[in-house]
Every structure is written in C-alpha cells, then in structure tokens.
C-alpha cells in the first residue's frame, strides 16, 4: 500500500475520524483508524461500535492499493506537529507502516486490518435529502433537550419524522421539549415515511462534519442503523431503541387554544435577567401574560 498526500487534507480527515476513536477500550483494535487505498481514492474509517465514520482524503496520489491500521493518536500527533504544506508518503508492507515527510520518518506497527470492525457504507439507492443549513439548525434546536442519562433510552436521541416533503425533529428529556421542522425530499427512488431515533451524540457529530460547504445532506435508514452522508464523510450510528413519547400531546390541538407571539431577542434578555435572582432550590421564573405585554418574575 502506498499513498502520497499533503498535510492539510490528511489532518482534516484524521480530525473527522478521530472523534469516535475511544481513548481506552477492551478491544484495543478500536484505538486505530483504518486506511483503505483503492485506485485514486483513500478512505479513513473509525468506530467505537456505536458510531462509525468514513471520510475520504482529498488530493491523494496512490501507486499501490491496500488497507492498513494506524494508531490514531500517534498518527494525529505526527501530522499535526509537521509544518503546513508538508507532503507525506505512507507505505505499508503488512509488517510495518512507514510515514515519511521531507525531514522525518516514522515506523509504526502494522496490525491486521481484517480485525477491524467494518464501517457501514452509504447505500447507492434511494435516500432522504436535506439542506445543510436546515440540518445545522435541526441539531442546534433539538439536541439540547435530550437526556442521555435517562433510563428511558429513547430520550437520549432525537426523533426524526421523515416523509417525501417534510422532516420533523423532536428532542425531549421528559420535562422540556424542542421541535423543529423543515422541507425534505427523496432522491434515487421511492421511500416510505420513517421515524428513526438518532443518538444525540451522532447528531452532534453530523453538525461538526457539515463544515462550510452547502452540499445537500443525505440520510438513509438501513436495518438498525442510520447513515448520513455529507461532503466526503459518511456517519453511521445505531438507532436508539425504545418508544419515543407522544410528543404531539404536548401541543394543544383545539380551536380555543391561546397562542402568543414574542420577539426572540427581548424574550431571551428578559429570561436571563429574571434568572439572576433564582436559586438552586427555586429555579422557576413566572410568566405573567397581560394585554399587550409579558411580565417575568
């Protein structure tokens, strides 16, 4: 296996993949990243068995295909401490891996890549498609309301209700609830409506992987996994098991329900000021609705 690439795309791929690499594990092989070289493409993979990431390294040159496991922490340190613009050459003969730069050379142990768990690839058939700005807002406006510590596992994820026209994202910890919706579409065929519960951590990783690009985000449900593809990265995660609360019951659906519109900025400022005088024993803020105004106390 032989690969040549510059520091910046290699470091970007490592930083993307390394977020799921466990620092300690009963399976030491998981502390590695897997590098697959085939033709003119190179893909880094990492997993902690709950979440997996595959990300393509841009601008590579290859002369020999193959796969190799590399210690994530050491490789990250080697690349990060090198000067900007450094060109790396990575070679492996199955017994050891050599990482070469202009003025340095590192010899790393080579483990059998067959021992590394497979990371699911994004399916080539139909999938849901969402805009990048929408996905970013869906994550920011729902994940904060989830609860990873609850014995009700479903509360540790975000419910996504997906159809061929809309997506509704809901997060709740049983006391508060956040909901946002937006447009969606289906590409590559037909799909039935689906309602996966995506782990909150996976949703946060999705937001981190979006970057500055505005390319559409593709989403597919495959068995017990949800897969999200954006740019050069695919994230796979096990769906959260359990029944999500009947969140629609929280919102009154009757003609006499009272709806109040307020401007977000002044409301946030008022809540923060009122919260100054709350205590650990009494964190509540009273909302008093009067004609034309809202009083917080």
| SSE class | alpha+beta
Beta-strand segment tally: 20
Assigned CATH architecture of the largest domain = Roll
| Strand arrangement, major sheet | 6-2-3-4-18-17-16-10-14
Run of helices and strands: EHEEEEEHEEEEHEEEEEHEEEHEE
Protein architecture, described:
The protein is an alpha+beta fold and 297 residues long. The protein folds into 3 domains: 2-115, Roll (DNA Polymerase III, Chain A, domain 2); 127-248, DNA Polymerase III, Chain A, domain 2 (Roll); 260-296, no CATH class. 18% of the residues lie in helices and 36% in strands. It is built from 5 helices and 20 strands. It has helices spanning 7-18, 72-80, 132-140, 200-210, 264-275; strands at residues 2-6, 32-38, 41-47, 51-56, 61-64, 66-71, 87-92, 96-100, 105-109, 127-130, 157-162, 166-172, 177-183, 185-187, 197-199, 217-222, 225-230, 233-238, 287-290, 293-296. Strands 6-2-3-4-18-17-16-10-14 form a 9-stranded antiparallel sheet. Strand 2 and strand 3 form a beta hairpin. Helix 1 runs antiparallel to helix 2 (72-80) and helix 3 (132-140) crosses helix 4 (200-210). The radius of gyration is 23 Å and the shape is elongated. The N and C termini lie far apart (67 Å). The mean pLDDT is 91.
């Amino acid at each position: 296996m032989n690969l040549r690439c510059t520091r910046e795309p290699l470091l970007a791929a490592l930083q993307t993949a390394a977020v799921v690499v466990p620092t300690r594990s009963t399976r030491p092989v998981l502390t590695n990243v897997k590098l697959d070289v085939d033709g003119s493409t190179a893909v880094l993979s990492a997993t902690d068995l709950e979440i997996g990431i595959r990300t393509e390294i841009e601008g590579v040159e290859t002369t020999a295909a193959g796969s190799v496991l590399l210690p994530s922490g050491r490789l990250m340190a080697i690349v990060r401490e090198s000067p900007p613009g450094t060109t790396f050459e990575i070679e492996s003969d199955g017994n050891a891996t050599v990482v070469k730069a202009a003025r340095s050379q590192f010899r790393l142990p080579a483990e059998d890549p067959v021992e590394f768990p497979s990371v699911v690839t994004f399916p080539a058939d139909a999938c849901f498609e969402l805009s990048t700005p929408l996905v970013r807002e869906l994550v920011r406006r729902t994940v904060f309301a989830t609860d990873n510590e609850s014995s009700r596992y479903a509360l540790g994820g975000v419910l996504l209700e997906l159809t061929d026209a809309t997506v509704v994202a809901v997060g709740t910890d049983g006391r508060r609830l956040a909901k946002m919706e937006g447009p969606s579409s289906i590409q590559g065929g037909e799909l039935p409506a689906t309602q996966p519960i995506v782990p909150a951590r996976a949703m946060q990783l999705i937001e981190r992987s979006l970057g500055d690009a505005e390319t559409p985000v593709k989403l597919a449900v495959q068995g017990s996994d949800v897969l999200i593809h954006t740019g050069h990265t695919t994230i796979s995660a096990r769906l959260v098991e359990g029944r999500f609360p009947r969140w629609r019951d929280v919102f009154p659906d009757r003609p006499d329900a009272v709806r109040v519109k307020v401007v977000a900025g002044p409301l946030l400022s008022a809540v923060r000021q009122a919260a100054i005088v709350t205590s650990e024993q009494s964190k509540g803020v009273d909302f008093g609705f009067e004609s034309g105004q809202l009083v917080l106390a």
